[in-house]
Amino acid sequence: KRVGVLISGSGTNLQALIHGTQTSDTGAEIVLVISNKDNVEGLNRAARANIPTKIIRHKDYPNREDFDQALHNELVRSGVEIVCLAGFMRILTGQFTSKWKGKLINIHPALLPLFKGTHAQKQALDAGVRVSGCTVHFVEEAVDGGHIITQETVPIELNDTEETLTERIKQAEHKAFPRALEWVAKEKVKIGDDNKLVWKL
Ligand code: GRF
């Protein structure tokens, strides 16, 4: 399956997806990386792997609908079949998410449905939970909603800061995201007609 990855930053998850798809038979090939920001490290990672990149700046569009339409057009032009959100820091419109339903996956740095939204790691520390982790899920219009594909847990240490916990969660993300992409690419999990997940693991 042809995969497009949307990023806004450092792209360590993109790197894990590149590694996963290039080193084993995952049924997925990354054919396009789109960033909404210039000069981010994720673009360099894609370039080093010879993956085409495109910058689509949200600031160049008058509203979310037009920005999302530009993303959609570019993905379609490249024949993308599955889209991964890997640290993409824009909220997508329902118009976009419904067009990519069952083909659009996101990684979130907490065990959903806990700690949705931004600063999930700080939310976990503030709540005093003793484990956290990451979640890969199908994207629906509700932010950080949608069916859960896979999760990884990490312990929270007594001396953790937002930075140390973020780093530990990223290590977990780099295992979870390639696994989830493989399952979606090989249709081991999909959204069925009744809107429930269908598993063939
Ligand atoms: C990850 O923690 C991801 O969960 C969140 O944004 C971060 C992206 O990190 N949505 P990176 O750019 O992949 O290093």
Automatic annotation (TrEMBL):
In the C-terminal section; belongs to the GART family. In the N-terminal section; belongs to the GARS family. This is Trifunctional purine biosynthetic protein adenosine-3. It comes from Zophobas morio. The lineage of its organism: Eukaryota, Metazoa, Ecdysozoa, Arthropoda, Hexapoda.
